Amino acid sequence: MVPRYHCTNGLAVLLTVAGACAREAPIVEVKGECAAAYRAQLCTWARMQESTVVAVGLTVPIASIENAPGDQQMVWPPPKVATLRMPESARLQAGLTELTVFWEAHGHPPGPYLTPHFDFHFFAIPPAERSAIDCADKTKPSVLPVGYTIPDVILPPALAEMAGGSPLIGLCVAQMGMHSLLTAELESTATFRGSMVIGYYHGRPIFIEPMLTRSLLLEKRSFDLPIPSIPGMTGAYPRTFQAEFDAQQQVYHFVFSDFSPDA
Prior knowledge:
The protein is 12% helix and 38% strand. The longest helix is centred in the middle third of the chain and has 7 residues, at 88-94. By secondary structure, it is mainly beta. A seven-stranded antiparallel beta sheet has the order 6-7-8-12-11-10-9. The protein has a six-stranded antiparallel beta sheet with strand order 3-4-5-15-14-13. A hairpin with a 4-residue loop joins strand 14 and strand 15. The chain contains six helices and 15 strands.
């Protein structure tokens, strides 16, 4: 990557050479894992400036969105499209360890989310801990982000039978956890387009999930989603999410940045 430079003008002082520029360290992209998804490759990465993480994310070719099947068999728990580890630097400084991707061809309950969409779960716990989630623990967090709710969801009869009963307490799914959703969306009669979901298990936050409709992604335009302040999140976590569309490469870059712990 081409280094970026910054020049500062001022009065000449000792050891200053007129017109000299102080060179900034370049931002270098560190590759993570890649995985096949609908005849395309999803890839994780981290952007580093020397030893500091400035962004982490995922590259999603538009082909993987276009090629997702329009129908799929109803199974429980939902099958993963891909599982990818984040680069080590992202795990240490950005708090994100692993990504699981799901395609919901018909959406899922509750009502506003019954539309084709992708779920991108960025976890903040070790993969083994994520794999062990069985939803036996019904503990909900004592405090949620402002404007969020953890619903108990009534399932359709066929799905309830596969899931072992209904309702789903806290919208908990095995190997994922509970899902907290925007209260305004839950109370709306409109179909959602894109939302930031915050996930929990054992009463503590464990993932950040951009949940994005296929129709939104097929618009091939950049957009962002707000990340709320997350009470109880351990260590630094991203405060900004942007989906940057590269028209030349025909890919999205999902970019998390501005990492900091809660005060």
